[in-house]
């Protein structure tokens, strides 16, 4: 019996209904074998009675008897398979935590090699063998081992989820397509799988591209940090050099002040010593004369007294000390003059620093042109959109939301929402003008207020010499000279807006600690014509880039 069973294939001991080894095998009149329970349940559901294999119909339910021969052969085969599985399992290691165990192993649960979507079970290498050799089982769909195979069954109809409803974006079984998803767009799982897999491939490519971009951004940021450190080291070195020079200048001025005062004191002491020496000399001579007078007055020699009397009685040759005095030197203004000299030195150094600063910010020069769509109807723009002045005739223009309808203002076409930028404007010959930057959401209709709270960071000139910064309230600016060309510099992230007198290389003023959240536009207002007195245009000038020799920026 054992030898005979070895000649038979495993496929011959499997029920075509349950696809497992026969249990109480019975034979139909057509000669095919099934588990007694399997064929009975099949015929209870399907009428008329039909062989599942050859499709032969029986008009009456056949009497089924257990085939003892096949039953014994199946039992022997099952025992042999279990022994083989037990032996193989003992050689394999048990499934580790997180690994899918074999559902068939009765003792130690071995790691599953595959999961069957038809049997809804996972198999180790030994128990997977029937699926690799039996012709009926070869048709089953095997996948990498997964847990919770029950989740691949339709919870409503207890059928395999083998279709995908594109309408509801969910997996469904065959019965679902007939009932709940009858009119929906349903495709096989494999078709949807291929589509989704292609999408995942595209997503993966996009993700890798995003990763690459972020890696490049990391490199860019690291490079920026390196450049920032280089700039910081350079600024520190330059700053130390400047302050060391200033410190030396202060110490030198202090030493000169002390020397000047001490020299005056030495001259006073020298004069006093001369007077004292001269007085002491006279005192010595007077003491000598006093001694001679005393001796003569005691003499009893009449002739000698009369002969010496004229020379001793006459006034001695001494100096009139009545008007002579030693006056302490005056130190009034000495310290002030020393500080004034130091101030002049600091002023020269400050001018050098401002020249260097202006050269640095000029590196961020941008090309700015005027936007006709924002220009007030009274304004006249040049063909190259680089000049603007106020005319005498109001043009008939469309009143779009961007246009200033009352105030003689215009914005640039260019906007900035990050980084740094710089531009220069010629204001020569004008008595009134406004310059600066404005945020995108400023009010452009009617009379507008131009303060930083209203979204304007600017300075203006009125009546030829009245300069103000448009803060709230406005701040009057004291300038040593009237600028003919104004430079405007903005550092968006730093929140800084600075204005320069370009020709004098002087800082006019700065707005610091600003908080920008919108686009910023360069802002221009040539102001009213004032009967021709203010007819000169504002001119956006090209920036004259000069060689950058000094790396230190000094902000006031």
Walkthrough of the structure:
- There is one protein chain.
- The chain folds into four domains: 1-85, Zinc/RING finger domain, C3HC4 (zinc finger) (Herpes Virus-1); 153-184; 192-313; 362-541, Sandwich (Jelly Rolls), CATH 2.60.120.920.
- Strand 17 and strand 18 (475-477) form a beta hairpin.
- The chain is built from nine helices and 23 strands.
- Mean pLDDT is 86; it is low at 1-6 and 547-556.
- The strands form six sheets. A seven-stranded antiparallel beta sheet has the order 11-12-23-14-19-20-21, covered by helices on one side. A six-stranded antiparallel beta sheet has the order 13-22-15-16-17-18, with no helix packed on it.
- The chain has 556 residues and is of the alpha+beta class.
- The chain is elongated.
- 37% of the residues lie in helices and 17% in strands.
Major beta-sheet overview: 7 strands, antiparallel
Number of helices: 9
What value does the Rg take, in angstroms? 55 Å
What spatial form do the alpha-carbon principal axes imply?
Answer: elongated
CATH architecture heading of the largest domain: Sandwich
CATH topology of the largest domain: Jelly Rolls
Number of strands: 23
Mean pLDDT across every amino acid position: 86
Q: In CATH, what is the homologous superfamily of the largest domain?
A: SPRY domain
User: Class of the largest domain in CATH?
Assistant: Mainly Beta
Low-confidence stretches: 1-6, 547-556
Distance between the termini: 107 Å
Main-sheet strand order equals 11-12-23-14-19-20-21
Measured as a percent range, the helix fraction is: 25-40%
């Amino acid at each position: 019996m054992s030898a005979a069973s070895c000649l038979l294939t495993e496929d011959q001991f499997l029920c075509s209904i349950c696809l497992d080894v026969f249990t109480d095998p019975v034979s139909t009149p057509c000669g095919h074998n099934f588990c007694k329970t399997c064929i009975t349940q099949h015929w209870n559901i399907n009428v008329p009675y039909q062989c599942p294999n050859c499709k032969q119909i029986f008009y009456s339910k056949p009497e089924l008897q257990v085939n003892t021969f096949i039953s014994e052969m199946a039992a022997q085969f099952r025992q042999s398979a279990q022994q083989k599985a037990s032996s193989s399992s003992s050689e394999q290691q048990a499934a580790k935590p997180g690994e899918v165990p074999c559902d068939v192993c009765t003792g130690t649960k071995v790691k599953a090699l595959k999961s069957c979507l038809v049997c809804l079970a996972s198999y180790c290498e030994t128990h997977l063998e029937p699926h690799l050799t039996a012709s009926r089982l070869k048709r089953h769909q095997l996948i990498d081992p997964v847990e919770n195979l029950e989740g691949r069954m339709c919870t409503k109809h207890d059928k395999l989820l083998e279709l995908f409803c594109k309408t509801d974006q969910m997996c469904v079984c065959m019965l679902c397509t007939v009932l709940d998803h009858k009119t929906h767009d349903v495709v096989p799982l494999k078709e949807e799988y291929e589509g989704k897999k292609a999408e995942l491939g595209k997503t993966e490519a996009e993700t890798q591209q995003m990763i690459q971009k972020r890696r490049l951004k990391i490199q860019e940021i690291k490079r920026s940090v390196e450049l920032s450190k280089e700039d910081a080291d350079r600024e520190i070195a330059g700053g130390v050099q400047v302050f060391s020079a200033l410190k030396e200048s202060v110490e030198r001025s202090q030493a000169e002040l002390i020397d000047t005062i001490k020299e005056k004191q030495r001259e006073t002491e020298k004069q006093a010593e001369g007077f004292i020496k001269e007085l002491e000399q006279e005192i010595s001579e007077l003491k000598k004369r006093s001694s001679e007078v005393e001796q003569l007055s005691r003499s009893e020699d009449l002739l000698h007294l009369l002969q010496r009397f004229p020379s001793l009685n006459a006034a001695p040759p001494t100096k009139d000390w009545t008007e002579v005095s030693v006056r302490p030197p005056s130190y009034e203004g000495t310290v002030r003059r020393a500080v004034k000299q130091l101030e002049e030195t600091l002023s020269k150094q400050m001018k050098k620093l401002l020249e260097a600063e202006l050269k640095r910010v000029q590196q961020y020069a941008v090309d700015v042109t005027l936007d006709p769509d924002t220009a007030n109807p009274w304004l006249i723009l040049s063909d190259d959109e680089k000049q603007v002045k106020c005319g005498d005739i109001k043009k008939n223009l469309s009143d779009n939301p961007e246009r200033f309808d009352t105030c003689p203002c215009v914005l640039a076409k260019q906007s900035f929402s990050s980084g740094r930028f710089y531009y220069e404007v010629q204001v020569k010959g004008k008595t009134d003008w406004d310059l600066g930057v404005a945020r995108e959401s400023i009010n452009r209709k009617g009379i507008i207020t131009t303060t930083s709270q209203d979204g304007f960071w600017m300075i203006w000139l009125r009546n030829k010499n009245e300069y103000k910064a448009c803060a709230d309230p406005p701040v009057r600016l004291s300038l040593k000279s009237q600028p003919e060309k104004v430079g405007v510099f903005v550092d968006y992230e730093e929140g800084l807006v600075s204005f320069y007198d370009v020709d004098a290389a002087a800082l006019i003023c700065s707005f610091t600690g600003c908080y920008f959240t919108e686009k910023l536009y360069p802002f221009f207002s040539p102001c009213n014509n004032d009967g021709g007195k203010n007819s000169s245009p504002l001119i956006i000038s090209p920036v004259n880039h000069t060689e950058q020799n000094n790396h230190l920026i000094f902000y006031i």
